[in-house]
Fold each of these.
Amino acid sequence: MAPSTTPKNRVLLIGWDAADWKVITPLMEAGKMPHLAKLVEQGVSGNLSTLYPVLSPMLWTSIATGKRAWRHGIHGFTEPDPAGGVRPVTNLGRKTKAIWNILNQQGMKSNVVGWWPSHPAEPINGVMVSNQFQQAVATPDKPWPLKPGTIHPPRLAEAIKEFRVHPSELTAEEIYPFVPLADKVDHEKDKRLGMVAKTLAECASIHAAATAVMQLEEWDFMAVYHDAIDHFCHGFMKYHPPRLPWIPEEDFELFKDVVNGAYQFHDLMLGAMMELAGPETTIIICSDHGFHPDHLRPRELPNEPAGPAEEHRHYGIFVAAGPGIKKDELVFGASLLDITPTILQTYGLPIGEDMDGKPLTTIFETPPDIEYVESWDRIEGDDGSHPEGIKLDPIDNQETLQQLVDLGYIDDVDTNQSKAAESAAKELKYNLARDLISSGKLPEAIEMLEQLWESYQDESRFGIQLFDCYLTMHALEKARTMLETIKARKKDYAEKAGKKLAELKEQYKEKEPDEISDQERRQFHHLQKQAHTNNHTLAFFDGRLLLAEHRYQEALDAFKQANHVQLHNRPSLLQKMGECYIALKQWREAEQNYQQILEIDPINASAHFGLAQVYLNQPGREADALEAIKTSLGLYFHNPQAHYVCGVALQRQGFQLEAIKAFETAVAQNSTLPHAYRRLARLYRVVYGDRIKAKETIKKALAARRKIQDFYAGKLSDVTDATSAIHQSASLGELGQAKVLGAPSDKEIIIVSGLPRSGTSMMMQMLEAGGITPLTDEVRGADEDNTKGYYEYEPAKARNDSEAWLPDAEGKAVKLVAQLLPELTASHHYRIIFMERPLAEVINSQTKMLERLGKQGGQLSKERLANAYISQIEKVKKILARYPEQVSILSVNYHDALEKHEETTAQINRFLGGQLNEQAMREAIDPSMRKQFITPQ
């Protein structure tokens, strides 16, 4: 696709993490956020619905790509570090182009500051300041260097780093607007002022860098992200007015102004950016979710790593103003997935058909024509993204490393590092599973959750998600078994936690309060929660299962036992009770139930949807039903069942054309609604007289019914959208073409490499027979998998320690698993023989070996494992290609080595200088190796 002409206006996208209209509206009405109020008056505004799970790195990547997490690849806050241990989430796992990459291909300049995650900075046409720029990593008396990869282009690093603000630089006058009584806080014991200073300094750093870049560098698109509102809210929303009963009055008086102060500070920053951007710029402000500021604030958070996300509200904010945007109007039904498609529409660019979002066409004064492209990812051109060689999938990378550790081909890292990496991978898999659930891909989610539940039996959250999946798929026997298992395990682990808690209490009796460390306090608090059994929650699960079994009265009784759940969870409980009342045709009780939800949460889309169903079942209330369902869709547009109900309400009132549009929207959002297709078919026939279209629509209804049957049968959908990798071989491609080289020097190192079970041990045997000394310590002896031994050298199996053993390998042959090739240093010269074998055979052979060893290996399907291996070998290939003077490579096909003896040994001999005994090499090949030709299952 050719670059477009220069757009008629620029776009400034500002992200305010966790910003919520519930806080903003009173402040605007009081005149305390004048710049945002001006933007709202000059443009459009509304709620922005979030995605599940409500975790910021996943959501901001969805905002920047228009895609859900299973498509874009970012699944959490941290990720396993290939070097061992854990690191903050990077953008290296992102599998699709962000909006700035798409614009890069169109010849536009983008400035991106602080986006989460954007580290390491991508080499875009413009400026990128990564999300690790603002974080103070040292005390003020020590150097504060920029991390490598923080700023692109590097020429700007020295200048931009001066805009960072260290928390110690802030004065009391700068803290007072947030904490007017700061002088009454004991700074030594109370760390909360330090939290305010840290968050404020980081926020100011991003703003300073952004405004500098806006003025000094040309740009067509700019994206700036602030996490300060979210951080202030997690730390201080508990003290926000009105005071909740469990908040001490003293704490309330000290910190009640922090959250409002944060919003007002953001308004000041907005004013500066509006002035710099100018009236010709389209400005979009959005948040990924909200934050409960009222009676819906939870008192207790879930006992899990992402527990603080429970404080999030499911609606963020959306504001857009600029040339061609409507003035002072509300937007309904917007999702954070719609941001990137809307920006593309602003520039007159096509929308990716593989994007999950849609352009918000109603915000424009003139309705635009929408064009589509199959996928921006398939369009060639300089997109300013990272080279393929440094990208990686953090989940698959960690699992393949575990596969190699369990197979014994590489050593594990330090125990603590390994445990941390495992924990990070666990959270990423859990978050991905939850996103798959939200995307309707339950079979794939179940596969992941079952692995997690099997591996971490004390974490009931995995079992609870499985229970939900089974209910959704009508696998009720599995759901009941799962619920009983959850209860039994919870009881067992609660008893164990109680005993451990009692032991700690005895230990702490001998300590003064200030002698108990923060880590000990956290452990104690964790055990307290683990020792407690929430019977109200279990009753809620009982009710949901009974409801799915159509035992409605019993379900109601169970739900009533769960009545003391936290207030912010009560709408979900009442929603399920409403479903029972509808099933029992108790319309008055159902209506009262949904009205009760709206008294707690007036903007609850599900409650309005429930009311619409109640009204539709009562003669003469069709107009009430239509009003309720339109309100629900205004809050949350992507709800195919709600569009179907809207169509029914319209049809009953005689609005046939509008009903057709509603049903068409329903099936566009969900192609498995046979009842919607049937109604459409009838309307096509009756309204349009189009029998052909009606007949085609009936066929779609039948196809939808078959899809539903397949879904309940547990058939997997195509999650990866990738071509099958299991029948391919991991190859170094043109790097491994046959070569004729002179004899290696006595300093040169011969490496035999490939994936485990690709024939590397056999090749070592051949080289030894041909006259090359192998470097091996025989620590790992022969077994039934390698009857002649593994020919390994233990120091070469250690990650991140390649320098130490290299002198021992000079003039010899050493075996090195493919994934460790990038750790070779450029201080030596290498000749690498790389073994290629079909991945189906490699993985099946690995699986048999793991079974014999009694180990699990990586918890990936064979297809995902194959994809991960190919990705890793591609990375290896790109890294080795950088060192043509130090590295020579010959690829050898495993099957050719077994079947084309003379040709293969001659090729290897030419590559290694022509001095080898080819006959002896051929005789070293064990004919019994042919038994390992495994047909893929």
Amino acid sequence: MTRLSIVKTLLLVGIAIIAIAGAPAYGQVEGVNYAQVANQYLVARLGIQDVTGYAQVPGKFSFGYVEGDPETDSDDNTSIIYGHEPTPHGNFGFALLHIQDINFDFVIGDSASGSWVLAPYADPKTRLIRAIWKTNPFGGTVDSSGYIEVEIKISLRRDMGRINYVITNKGSMTHSIGVRMYFDEVAFGDCLTKPVIFGYGYLPGETEFSYNDIPDYIDHLDTIIDPTLVSRHLFRGQDITTPDRVVVADYYSTFSSYVWDYTIPNPVTDVDDTSTAAWWNPVGVGVRGSREITLYFGSAAATGSYTMPFVLAAQAERNLQYDTSSATGLLPDPFTVTAYMYNLHGFDTGILLNNPNFFITLPEGLELASGETISKPSATVYPQEEGAVTWSVRATGEVAGDLEYIVTGGAGGNSKSVKCTVTVPATTTTKFKQDWQMISVPFNLIDPTPAAAFQLLSSEIRLYRWNADARAYETVDSLQLGEAFWLNCDSDFDVALAGASADQGLTAQFIPLRIGWNQIGNPYVHSIPWGKVKFLKEGSLEDPISWEAALQTFLIRPNIFWYDTITEQYMSASKKTAQLTPWRGYWVRALQRCTMIIPPMEEFDLEPIVSSSATTSRVSSVPLEGILGEDFYPEVDLRSSAKSHPNHTYAHGAKLTAVPTLSSEPISAAAPETAGNPIGWGLRLVAKTSRNAVGWATAGASSSASDGYDNQDMETPPPLKNYVAISFPHNDWGINNGKYYEDVRGRDRSRKIWDMQVETDQLNSNVTLTWPDLAAASKEYAFKLVDLDGNKTKSLSATGSYRYNSRNSTVRRLRLIAEPMKAVPLTISRLKVSTSRASRTANISYNLSPDAIVDISVKKRSGGRTVRKLVIAKSAAAGTSVESWDYRDDTGKLVSFGLYFVEVRAATSERSAVKTSAPFLVMRQVGHHK
């Protein structure tokens, strides 16, 4: 459907047209609301200004560039929201107000369903547009005189627009209020923008993100390769209200009829004309309560911190290119980092940023060019202007992947920092650390033997690789693309690969995966996103399936693990945006025999390495049908493959000296349970041997988890020698059988039992177990540790550790038992109402035994008519809480002199409600003040 036909369709269904005359730069036109502000980067508009069109809602907004990216002129005076320039369509950015309890939606600013309390106006001194709009009364509902008021603020923060809504409940009862914000992005007037997540790539089809999966930002490009114009949505950090859900979808589907919800069709199809919608789920807003929503949209040229009193932004190359003609193998060499400080104070304040200074902090792999200094000053920065400094930075080529550097700026006693990332391809030079590291070589080699490739003596290095079929480590005698292995060195040394060439990336790479743990690596010199890897089930004649489909069909586990040489621990990631970095080795757990397919570079939005000559390798770069045949194993019976793993064995008497232990984002014992991300609690158990081997595992509970297997349970990759490891073995989970270092159960207050085992290859060693997170977990449970082999039981709260000797056994069987704490009776005590003459309010204090949901009301007499609902369904912690009353009733009027009763009601999900009340005399001289 063309946009013109959409216009006709919407006209037929009765969407009003508001005809107005042309608008000036600021203010209103003949009662039609329209305002605009601009700086040297952006222009923002709120309202409508064109003569014809459809869906002309005065509360709509739009953005465009004035100069845009300061490092290019090609984006000057361009739109980044459809309809920004005078067109027949008006502005295609708006917010939808969803009142769930009355099942009604309002377009904020719509004159048909509301009215302006304060019409949009522009303040050029602060580059701020402000307006206040209210809904029509909720006729025909239990709150028939109620309405919702929305304050709108759109301000310019250097190259980003800050969109802020403060939503206030002006009704007489609590309402459940949600918000959906919509953007129809354009580039050079073309609606066919390319949505991209940095580090993941282009989103060709409709895509949904929710809660923890929501990226920090999404960019919209005019073209994938070498884009000229890029706009950005910021979804996290700053003072942003992170949405609960974000959808990138077909423009007409997400915009049509101003509907609150939208479901991505199944199967997902590619779309050209995309738009972006963000949802903040409905939450209860009490009488005179407010909800604030803040989001940023603007230029993607820089990375910045946009909160007062100044913007600190940094701009530089985001992706270096692999080029053997450069001395380091990378271009540009060097590259420029520019730091900006933009004064956000208004023109009329006269507040200057005197003596601003900038600093840059570089990680390993980046260094300042000759003659550069870490610290640099700039001239005084006047209001609504900016100062800038530059550094010349080089990538050494010895570290690949996403390298994060920090730019800091300070002035007038205030300072802030921004983290920037540059993606550096692998080169043929790198550094190896002393002791153990898990690596993969991302180059084809003329001679793939380790000694020849690394130009070292065979005695100087030791390499071992996990054999998934034999479940044992074997020595490595050939370095192949796509394979990872353990490398042990006697000392740190620099590596310059001999006879190496980068794969051209013109065809796919294929890596066979066996059932169990597999050591794999990135075969390309560029980082690639884990979620864009594809898979083919053994023996299948179907097309390869996506990463998501591989998870759904139980081909693989979502987690990748790698070894951090600094902490000497495994790290893990399970998001599809996680990067497979060149030179780094990874563990991947396969549940069925399958082939992991690394697509050609063009599918990662990367240009192929066309100047390199590829050599042959065991990881083939041939068409897919070339590997279907004898190389594949027979179909696997999942029932027979779901047996428990035997103890790990190690071939060739390898002398492995380091101790890889496990680390990821463990369940935080102190983390609160939040909507959409119910964490619950976690109890971390740490084991340490007398020879300093360390390992840990976490037992936990979450209201989003089950007692059986789910994606919150994480398995343990194979350890090395001289290790100690704690795990929760499961032989009762079928295809999901294995050893888990995070075992999260349902949070239902029932008795929980975890069977555990502590494994170590250090015989006759003292092993000490500790539990540092007990304090938070023990609020719900009392824990016991049972040594099944030693026939002992310990209360975790009575002692801080437990020790045993491994003697001649590699495995110790234990059991963790969690008994629910005896329920604490729900009581409300020490209710007291006192006068605060300083604030002219009444202070209401009370004490709760456990945490509870509380309602507080003021009544004319005990058990009588409610005068004011002070608190509605508020979460209150155990202990003393205080609320205040301004002596007004639910209509906002001051109450009359007399005796009133304050009633506090509390309830929990497990206990019946209790209530108590206390009298309070309102004195005329206290309550009735001018």
Amino acid sequence: MIIFLKVFCSPWSCRFAYMLILLVGVHGLNAQDALKLIQLNHMSWTARDGAPSEIAGLGQTADGILWIGSGSGLYRFDGTTFSLFQPAQGEAPLPRISIRALCVARDGTVWVGFRPAGVAAIRNGHIKLYGVQEGLPPDTTYQLLQAHDGTMWAIAGLHLWQLRGERWQRESPNEPFSSERVYKMFFDKAGTQWVGTNKWIYRREPDQDKFEATNEAGGELIQFAESPDGSLWVGGEEGAGAPIPTVRRLDVEGHRSQYPIRLHVLSDTLLFDPEGQLWIASVYGLLKVSPREITKTPIPIAVDQDKQFKWFGRDQGLSTDSATAMFKDASGDIWVGTMRGLDRFEQPKLIHPENIPVSDRRMMVTSCSDGEVWIAVPLAPLVSIRDGQTTTRIDKTYEINSIYCGPSNVIWFTDDHGIGRFDRKTTTHIPLPEGMRPSSAKQVIEASDGSIFVTFRNAVELWRWQGGRWSQVTVPSVQKEGRNVIYRDRSGRLWAGYGNGAIAVLEDNSGHNFQCPTLGDITAFAEISHGFLAGGMNGIAVQHGNNFEQLHLEDELHVRGISGLVEADNGDLWLNVAYGVVRIPQSEFLKALDSPTYRMKSQLITEGTVIGPAPLSYALPSAVRGARGTIWFANSSTAFYVDPKRLAQNLIAPVLTISSVAADGAALPDYRQIRPGVNTLVIKYAGINLPAPERVTYRYRLEGSDSTWQEVGSRTEAVYTKLRPGHYTFEVLASNGEGVWSHPSSTRFQVLPAFYQTAWFVLACFALAVAAVWLILMLRIRRVTETARIRAEERADERVLIARDLHDTLLQGVQGLMLRFDVASQEVPEGGRARSMLEDALKSADTILLEGRNRVRSLRSDRLKDLTLAEALDGVGRHFTLYSNAGFDVLTEGPVGVVDPIILEEVFCIGREAITNAFQHADPSHVEVKITYGKKVFAVSCADDGKGIDPILLSSGGRPGHWGLVGMKERADRIGAKFECVSSTANGTRITVTIPANRAYGVRSPIIRVLFKCLPLLRP
């Protein structure tokens, strides 16, 4: 068809028919809304940023890392930092640095082809090399691709190779292109494999064994690309002898096109973006075209027709003119490798129109009811934008201060000449009220009847121009100082905003005042489908009856310095604020209307060259609605718009990794167990978000330490000090800045305890503390006991002294007196009464002397000083056996311990009394004393097999005038012992004294008793 037109048509008619055919053929591609390269968000990295040069291949792995094959090696890029690939520890580096081909397989393996020869596969940092021994030729590998079935293909030495097992095999000699030079291969969405040679283009279906030729010619420098609508495109050099650079749409099996498109332009690589726009990279830079744009170009007749296109090159910000590789990442951004660096192109949210004036002071924007947007800049032309076309309306204006389009689509503006009126054809100025300076007019609002309301600087009055005359609005409620902004709603009411949250409304000839002081200065109004809004320096409020209620956001910074409020077609609320553009979803706004305390979630948008504060010169609404639902904004230096219907939304969460853990500045290769005594633990993490790494924010928590998530913004490390020993789990989340959060990345570790933090150490310390307390207590008891012993010895010595004195004085005196009385009695005759009285007196004195001797003997008793208790009691019993036939034994049970002297003395006295009573009163055949040194008790018992004790006497405590049993019980009570007397006529009598060990020995623990035994040895 094209040939027919060229042969039979005149040049102009042929060109018209050709363009008509193209228009029909591309009806499915709509480029009306496609942005030009200059309008996209563009970032560039060169050698000064660490980027490599001579980039030949780009790819992205599942962790978000961009892999770059270049003439200086293999690099990794996480959005902020370039790093040269390093193999796993202990492995050799890549054999060559010049990389010609790169492919990232679906399993994450990175394949690279080298110049002059060889291929490497990189899996998890480990390198596997392929060379001549694995079947490859000793030539450069130009391309690597993975088929749909997972097999790897390569073009090396201008031939096609396939990896089978661990060896590369060349295509079969039976293939139709076996004798041709292969330049490029491609797999389309259906899995069909395409091969371009120096002669033809070949194809092979997934279920076919051999390639088949198409009717499309090949050529050198050939490239393939498949558009979103399924058409197949190639680029290269077409023709023989003097080949013409061409980019064309093919008409082949599987990609039929009734009207092929052919564009004569040089291309080194091709790529389609998500909007169906074709990107062409060449030595001229970048070209972004659509079939509609192609149809508007003349039919090229020479190679240098490349220059008719507006290439995006170094002059427009590309790292250099020569673009060598292109790649579309997971989020749809386009990456371009050049001979001098790396570039990224991102679909903007805030779109900058072309050909509008710029200013370092302020921008002003307004829109008319027909959707046309007007942009004004001081001392610059006044322009309007309709359907993407920018038109200059007034070549030059004066110091313009405000602009407004009224219901009649007339443009009103204020400048140094006063108030201007532009009716799309002519400009006129209306006279000002008497006494007003030309530059004093602030804001103009047009009423439905064509009249205008005007505010003036330093004037309290609100003026109205109607029918060629000025008049003052005399409603008292609007006669206030400090008026910032006026606004006319759909019902014709006029609203005025003042400082300190004061709002007034004028309806006919009456007015009403509102107060919302928390808003600060009122700077903007908006009438939306859910109510009437007022915006101020400190927030936003909605009218409820006679009040304005302030609404709250999670981040109050998102509503600071509002200068524009617009409702989108979908109900979302858009704000122009001091820190950028803010979107409040309709669902959030409705929740806030239902509950005034609800804090709305919002999205702050700042990007590209349109970042900057909104103008706060008042009287200038900085956000308006444009055509087809667009919303236009003005900031301090430029104007831009948002299309809510096609708002670019990054739905891909950052790929999050925990990169390292360091303890006190030293990196820990294995941090599952962290040594004791670490003061500072630093955990570093990173969320890879290639489209906008600067927007990534984080939150983390350490289970075992943090009770809630810690919001840390863009900080990429967590610092903990003096963590206690235990098991911890660290979790971190990353957001891409647009509300999409990653899955938590976590790691577990244990902080090992120091020896002094272990349970056994705590128990040992507790035991030692208890032992120390007991030792101190026992030392005290020992001291008290020693003091008591010394005092007991002193008392014993004192008793001995008393006994000696009694013996040497009283008893000896009585003895001498008795001798004298005996002599005297001999002189008295026998039978006389006096003689009888003297003999009786001598008998009584003898009895008294005997008792006195016994008392003195008891006072001088010191046998326990040199004898054990068993020896002392045995001595008592042996004395009685001299006058009795009864047997006597003393038994000792257990290791003999050290008994408190006082207790020992009392026990001896009790034992002596028991032995004495047994021999004197029981008439026994055998008496047995048993001394038990037990761990819990110290006991002494005296048992006989005599006639026992009368139960009546036992119950009454003994015979009248006898104090044996009573005395023994009293002694037992005095030392805290248990006294027990069991007697029967059949079994005799058993008297037992039982004393607790801690009271008898003074110390309960055997170890402490040993210590006490050793204490005397330690004394100097």
